[in-house]
Each structure stands twice: as C-alpha cells, then as structure tokens.
Amino acid sequence: MKSNIFIAILLFPLLFACGEKNTTSLSHLSDFIDIDAIEEVRMSNNSGRFYLTPEQLISFKKDLYRLSYAPNFSAKVGAISMELTIKGEEYELTSSTNGQYVEANSSIATKNQDRLTPKSWFYFETNGVNFDNYKKP
Predict the structure, then answer these.
(1) For residue 94, what are the β-bridge partners?
(2) Taking Cα atoms as reference points, which of 106, 110, 105 lies closest to residue 94?
C-alpha cells in the first residue's frame, strides 16, 4: 500500500509536466517564424505608415533574428505596428517607441505551432533593436 502511494507521488509531477507546452528549447523569433520567407513589411511608427524598401527589408530581417523569446512575460506595447506578409498571409508584430519587447499572436507561428497555446500572445526581447529607427522612404 505504501509503495503505491509513493509511486503515485512520484508520477503526479511527471503527468502534470506532460500536459504543459515545452518551449524551453525555443529561444528566438526565428524558432517560430521563417524570417527569410517574409515578403514585405508595412511599418507604422513615428515616421508614419509605409512599406519597407528592399534595402530596409534586408535590415529588418537581420533585426528580427536578434529578437529573443521571453516566455511567461507580458508587456504594454502598441505604438509601433509591423504587418508582415509571409507566403501571402498577413501577420502583425507590435512594439513601442524605444521598446524593449515585441508582442506577437501565436497565429504568426509558421514553425513549432504545437509548442504554443492557440490564440495566445507571446513576447520577445528586442535586444537593442529600435523599430522606430525605420524611416519613411
């Protein structure tokens, strides 16, 4: 009888852990979306609303590779909107002026979708990237 209780106590945490989404090995935005597949970006920041030029798009993709995943985090964002077109579908990232974080809906994930809760928000540290630096051409 005591051994059954002991086994149950040991198995309970294991069963609980299996029900959670494992995102520990996901560390960057590139783990969730195919950054190289971004076709165009419509930026809305303090410079106005505009499409990135081909040169800006190259720089933008490099900046996105710098974003690191911030699990179990939330932040107030919204002053900067980035509408990404990936394989003909539109997705949105939001940030704030000089923001330290970018917010995305889980619907943007084109990779590792099974590791996210559907219809949830997740965040990325900008690591010094300031999306307000993109200027209207």
Answers:
(1) 81, 103
(2) 105
Contact assessment for residue 75 and residue 126, using Cβ atoms and an 8 Å cutoff: no
pTM, 2 dp? 0.77
- Whether 123 is covered by a domain: the verdict is yes
Separation CA 37–CA 89 (nearest Å)? 11
Does residue 58 form part of some domain? Answer: yes
Spell out where 1-127 has E strands: 38-45, 48-51, 68-70, 80-86, 89-95, 101-105, 121-125
Backbone phi and psi for residue 108, each to the nearest 5 degrees, phi listed first: -75, -20
Q: Sheet with 89-95: list strands edge to edge.
A: 48-51, 38-45, 80-86, 89-95, 101-105, 121-125, 68-70
Give a yes or no: residue 83 inside a domain. yes
Domains held by the chain: number? 1
Q: What percent of the chain has pLDDT over 90?
A: 55
- The parent domain of residue 60 ranges over 24-133
**Structure token digits, residue 45:** 């920041």
